[in-house]
Amino acid sequence: MSASQIPAFRLRSRDGTAEESLALAGIWRRAWIAANRNAAFIEPITHWLRRVQTEFVPPAEVVLAEREGQVLAFMVLMRRNGYVAQLFVEPHLRNQGLGQALLDEAGVRMPNGWKLHVATGNAAAQRFYERYGLVRGAVDRHPTSGRERVAYHWHPSGPPRRRG
Predict the structure, then answer these.
(1) Is the distance from CB of 107 to CB of 114 less than 8 angstroms?
(2) 3-class DSSP state for residue 47?
(3) CA dist., res. 103 & res. 98, Å (int)
C-alpha cells in the first residue's frame, strides 16, 4: 500500500476506557522495547497498564492518534507546566506523521512554549525532535529512575515545523 493509500488518522482526547488504557500500555511497552533493545529486563504489560491508570489522569491530558478506531500513538501533556510528559508511536508505524501531528497539537494547546525530556540513549527520538525543530537543552537525570536524559524545548518564535 502506498502512502497515498494509507487512510488518514485523527487526533482525539482520551476516553479513559479499560480497552483504551490497555492499548496505550501496549504501545508504550512496545515503543520502550524498540528504544531499549539491550535492556536486561523488560517490565510486564501490567507495569505499563498500572502507570497508564495512575499517571494518565487529570491534570494530565492525553491525546491519541487513531485510524479507523485503532490507537496508533499518544502524547501526555501537563499543560500547567508546559510539558510533554510522554510521546510514543507504535514502532511499526513510525515515519507516517503521527509524532509530528502530536507535537503540532502540543504547540496548539501550549502556545507559549513547552519542553520534554528524552533518554540520552534514545538517538532515534533525539534525531526526530531535532528534525522537528526543537532546541536541545541540558542533560540531567530523571528524578525517579535516575536515567540520564536530555531536555528539548519549543518556543513560539514561529509555528512548530518539522525540518528535513
Answers:
(1) yes
(2) helix
(3) 9
- For 16-47, give one letter per residue: b (16+ CB within 10 A) or e: eeeebbebbbbbbbbbbebbeeeeeeeeeeee
Asked whether the CA dihedral 140, 114, 103, 78 is positive or negative, the reply is positive
pTM above the 0.70 mark?
Answer: yes
- Reported as half-sphere exposure (CB side, CA atoms, 13 A), residue 5 has a value of 2
Nearest to 132 by CA among 143, 121, 116: 116
Q: 122 with 35: CB under 8 angstroms?
A: yes
How many residues appear in the chain? 164
Maximum CA extent, the chain? 44
Q: How many Å apart are CA 107 and CA 96, to the nearest integer?
A: 19
CB distance 120 to 129 below 8 Å = no
The band of 124, judged by pLDDT with boundaries at 50, 70 and 90, is: very high
Give backbone dihedrals phi and psi of 75, rounded to 5 degrees, phi first. -140, 140
The amino acid at residue 40 is A
Q: Are 142 and 149 in contact (CB under 8 A)?
A: yes
Cell of 74: 499518544
Q: What is the pLDDT of residue 132?
A: 94
